[in-house]
Write a sequence for this structure.
């Protein structure tokens, strides 16, 4: 896969990166323990709620219901793009694999974008009500 010239470079960089990450994990251990100690579970909050706040700090309760809609419509759009991109070369009799890959990527992006656009329009309609 790599030329004999690149092998030592890639291996050296991989080892250096692994050592760096190991030192980073060990160095930030105390910081992580302090964060866990600061969590307030006395108010009835579960650890999953705290993790959710860390993962999506900008989400608000009104915005979180729309995130499900966005993700759902995005995945539906990507699925439609995959289905149509698979059918087009069979219908047209295209055997060029490079062209099939381009059609697949393009249709996944187009239908995924349409899914997000539909989600945006639904959000705007709900916010006006």
């Amino acid at each position: 896969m790599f030329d004999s010239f690149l092998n030592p470079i890639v291996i050296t960089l991989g080892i250096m990166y692994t050592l760096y990450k190991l030192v980073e994990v060990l160095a930030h251990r105390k910081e992580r323990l302090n964060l866990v100690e600061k969590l307030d579970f006395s108010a009835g909050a579960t650890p999953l709620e705290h993790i959710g706040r860390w993962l999506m700090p900008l989400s608000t309760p009104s915005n979180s219901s729309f995130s499900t809609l966005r993700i759902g419509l995005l995945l539906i759009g990507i699925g439609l793009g995959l289905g149509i991109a698979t059918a087009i070369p069979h219908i047209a009799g295209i055997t060029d694999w490079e062209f099939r890959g381009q059609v697949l990527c393009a249709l996944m992006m187009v239908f995924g974008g349409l899914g997000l656009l539909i989600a945006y329009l639904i959000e705007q309609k709900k916010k006006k009500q």
Residues 59-128 form one domain. Residues 109 and 119 are 15 Å apart (CA to CA). The chain has a mean pLDDT of 79. The radius of gyration is 24 Å.
